[in-house]
Amino acid sequence: LPMGQADFADKNLLGPGCSFRATPGGPVLLRIRDEGDGLVHFNKAKRRITAATPGPEAVENGGIMAGEKVSFMLNHAPGPGEPGSAATHVWPATLTMRTEDGGKRVYRDGRWQCDR
Q1: Which of 116, 107, 88 is nearest to 21 (CA)?
Q2: pLDDT at residue number 33
Q3: Rounded Cα distance, 74 and 94, in Å
Q4: CB 40 within 8 A of CB 72
Q5: Phi and psi dihedrals of 2, rounded to 5?
Q6: In the 3-class helix/strand/coil scheme, how is 48-109 assigned residue by residue?
Q7: How many CA atoms lie within 13 A of 39 on its CB side?
Q8: Using CB atoms within 10 A of its CB, is residue 79 exposed (0-12), middle (13-18) or buried (19+)?
Q9: Rg (CA), the chain
Q10: How confident is the model at residue 12, as a pLDDT?
Q11: pLDDT tens digits for the chain (116 residues)?
């Protein structure tokens, strides 16, 4: 489910990081800060997630993120990304979600946006 700035502020997750949107300009479905901590709204609850490798470059590159009962793999197009609004870069991306009960959902043609 989508999330907004109030959700991130409530969990102390504001600051530089990256967000996944299933459609260009659509709502944020997943947010991860450069420090490696983040948030996803899954199964009617906002859940904390952690990047397998924290740090600005690692988070920007995507990779594996996981939390309670769910994990994600983010892959984005190669290269420096398209310039977005002030101090952001955006890549076409695919997000694969796996749940501990064996469920899987793939969001293709999404956007990975990183702000610094």
Answers
A1: 107
A2: 95
A3: 6
A4: yes
A5: -70, 155
A6: EEEECCCCHHHHHHCEEEEECCEEEEEEECCCCCEECCCCEEEEEEEEEEEECCCCEEEEEE
A7: 19
A8: exposed
A9: 13
A10: 86
A11: 678 888 898 888 888 999 999 988 888 999 999 999 999 988 888 899 999 999 999 999 999 999 988 999 999 999 888 887 767 899 999 999 999 999 999 999 999 999 87
Report whether 52 contacts 64 (CB < 8 A). Answer: yes
Record the tokens describing residue 9, joined without a space.
């502020």
Q: What is the pLDDT of residue 30?
A: 94
Residue with tokens 């690692």: 58
Q: Tokens at residue 28, please?
A: 């944020």
